């Protein structure tokens, strides 16, 4: 379901500016770190909207979009991952679209919606702890 997460997600993770020891993380941990960073960034975007801080709102929403596009969407292998990979692709794409609308409208409720829909996916990924079926394992 995934293509080279080790190289692609690690470099995407570094590019989006998240500080951690990415070089020592296994592929499963990289995805966990991406989900954690996404939730943290979305929380920061929501606070920025509530405070009327437009520059930081834009910065945090753009950061969240990059995490989704470069870290979570890019490694999906739609050919081998079947329906699950397609569903994740559709969910991540939906979240990118919603975040774009949240940015345009400065809508904290949309940010909260994305947080709510991504939380079960992040929790599920954490629970498999690298022990899921082979097609779920990033390579």
TrEMBL record:
It comes from the Bacteria. The keyword Zinc does not apply. The keyword Nucleus does not apply. Gene3D superfamilies: Flagellar protein FliS. CDD domains: FliS. InterPro entries: FliS (IPR003713), FliS_sf (IPR036584). It is found in: Cytoplasm, Cytosol. Keywords: Bacterial flagellum biogenesis, Cell projection, Chaperone, Cilium, Cytoplasm, Flagellum. Pfam families: FliS. Belongs to the FliS family. This is Flagellar secretion chaperone FliS. It comes from Rhodoferax potami.
């Amino acid at each position: 379901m995934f293509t080279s997460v080790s190289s692609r997600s690690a470099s995407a993770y570094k590019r989006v500016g998240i500080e951690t020891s990415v070089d020592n993380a296994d592929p499963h941990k990289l995805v966990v770190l991406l989900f954690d960073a996404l939730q943290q960034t979305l929380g920061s975007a929501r606070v920025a909207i509530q405070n009327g801080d437009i520059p930081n709102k834009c910065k945090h929403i753009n950061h969240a979009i990059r995490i989704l596009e470069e870290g979570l969407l890019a490694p999906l292998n739609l050919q081998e991952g079947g329906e699950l990979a397609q569903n994740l692709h559709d969910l991540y794409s939906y979240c990118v679209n919603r975040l774009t609308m949240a940015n345009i409208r400065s809508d904290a409720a949309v940010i909260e919606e994305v947080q709510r829909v991504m939380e079960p996916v992040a929790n599920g990924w954490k629970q498999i702890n690298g022990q899921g079926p082979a097609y779920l394992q990033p390579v």
